[in-house]
Amino acid sequence: MQCSWKSMVLLALASIAIQYTAIRTFSSKPLSLLCPVGLATTGHAVNCSLRDLTRLGQRTHILILATTRSGSSFVGQLFNQHPEVFYLFEPLYHVQLALLPRLAQSRNLAERRVMLGAARDLLRSLFHCHLSSLESYIRPRPSNHSTDKLFRRGASRSLCSPPVCEVPLGLEEQSLVLSDEGECVKRCGPLNVSLAADACRAKHHAAIKTVRIPQISDLRALIEDPRLNLKVVQLVRDPRGILASRIETFRDTYRLWRLWRATGHRPHNLDLGQINTVCEDFLRSVSLGLARPPWLRGRYMLLRYEDLARFPLQKTRELYSFLGLPLDRSVEDWIINNTRGSSDLSSRQKFTTVRDSAANAENWRVKLSFDMVVYTQTACQPLLELLGYKTVFQARELRNLSYSLVEDRTAPPFFLNN
Ligand SMILES: *[C@@H]1O[C@H](CO)[C@@H](O)[C@H](O)[C@H]1NC(C)=O
Ligand SMILES: *[C@@H]1O[C@H](CO)[C@@H](O)[C@H](O)[C@H]1NC(C)=O
Ligand SMILES: *[C@@H]1O[C@H](CO)[C@@H](O)[C@H](O)[C@H]1NC(C)=O
Ligand SMILES: *[C@@H]1O[C@H](CO)[C@@H](O)[C@H](O)[C@H]1NC(C)=O
Ligand SMILES: *[C@@H]1O[C@H](CO)[C@@H](O)[C@H](O)[C@H]1NC(C)=O
Asked: How many domains does the chain have?
C-alpha cells in the first residue's frame, strides 16, 4: 500500500509539530492512521518513503546517563523489561575499546573529544535502529552482519528472544533458561545484526544505558536534534557508595583503597583521580540540569539511586510519567520480584546482584572505614550538598543505619520533570 501525496504532507507537518508539543496525545492516537502500513509495529518491508520520519516522531528515545557502580544496570532493567522498549546495554563500550584501547577514562581533552563525537554519532544511529553502525567498532570486525562479540548482549531481552534468537526449545523452558545472560549467548549463537535492527524497528521506543558520557552538556547536539525526541535520565548516587562498590568490583584500579581499608593507613600514592572525576562530572552535569536551560526543558530528569532503592515502584512511576510512556505490568512485576518489595523469600532471584544492589544502596556505610568516608566526602563536599547527601562527623553516625544520610529531595524543582 502507498501513502497518498496529501497524507505524506500531513505526516511531515505532524512530525515536525510533534517535536515541539507534548507527544502524548499524538502517540495515543497513532499517526499510522494516516499511513496505514504498520509503521513501528511491522518493522521492515514497509512501503512508505516517510516511514522513518513518522516512526521517529512517535518514538521516545531514552538515554540513561550514569557512571559505573551507580545502579545503572538496575535502571536499565526498568526499560529492558518493558515489552515495547528496545534496550541496549552499554553499546559505547565498543567505541571506547576501539578508540582508546588502554585508557578507561582519558583525561586528554583531544582524545576525549574524538571519543565523544564518535559516541554521539553512534547513539544517534542506534536510536534510529541503524545497528550496523556498531559493527565498525566491534573487534574482530563482524563479517556478514553476524557477530558473537557484542558486549553484554545477554543483558538485552530483545537480543535474546525471537525473532533475533530462535532457540529450539519449548516456550517455558526458553524463558526460564534465557533469564541468564550467559545462557543467552550460548544458546542463541552469533547475533544477526540485521535481525536485531528489525527487532529495534518493531518496538515503539528505544533505551540505551551508558556510563561513557561524562556530562549532560556532552549530549546537547542530540537533545536538540528534532528528529530524535531524546529524553535523558541522569542517574546519580552518593559518591561514597560508588567508591565502596568500585573497590569491590575493580580490584586492580582500586587496589590502594583496599590496602587502606585493610591496613588502616592511607597509602601516600593514593589516587583521588577517579573519585574526583565522578564528583566533578556529577556536579557540573546536575548543576546544568537543575538550572533548566531552554534546550533541556522536558528532556532531563535527575534520579537518585538511593530514592529508587527505597521507593522502587513509586520512583519508576515518576520515571515513566516523565517519559510520557505507559508503565507496563511486566516492569512492575519485575520490580516486585527483584527488590525488597518482594516478600517471597524463596524467590529465584533472591541472590542476584540486581536484587542486592537495590537492597543495599547504603551498605557502603559498613564497608568503608570512617577515615575513607571523611577523605571522600571532603573531596566531594559541594556535590554532596547539591544532591542532598549528608556529611558524617563521627563513626557512630556513619554506622547507625537508622539515621538516614539521604535528605528528602523529592519536590520540584529538584526532581525536574517539566
Ligand atoms: C512499493 O510500491 C511500489 C509501487 O506500488 C512497488 O512497485 C514496490 O514493489 C513496492 N515496494 C515494496 C518494498 O513493497
Ligand atoms: C553470509 O550469510 C549467507 C546467509 O547465511 C551465506 O549464504 C553466505 O555464505 C555468508 N557469506 C559469508 C562470506 O560468510
Ligand atoms: C540474518 O537475517 C537476515 C534476515 O532474516 C537473513 O537474510 C540473513 O541471511 C541472516 N544472516 C545470517 C548470517 O544468518
Ligand atoms: C516474578 O516471580 C514469579 C514467581 O517466582 C514468576 O512466576 C514471574 O515470572 C516473575 N516475573 C517477572 C517479571 O520476573
Ligand atoms: C541512631 O539514629 C537514630 C535516629 O537518628 C537515633 O534515634 C538513635 O539514638 C541512634 N542510635 C545510636 C546508638 O546512636
From this structure: 1
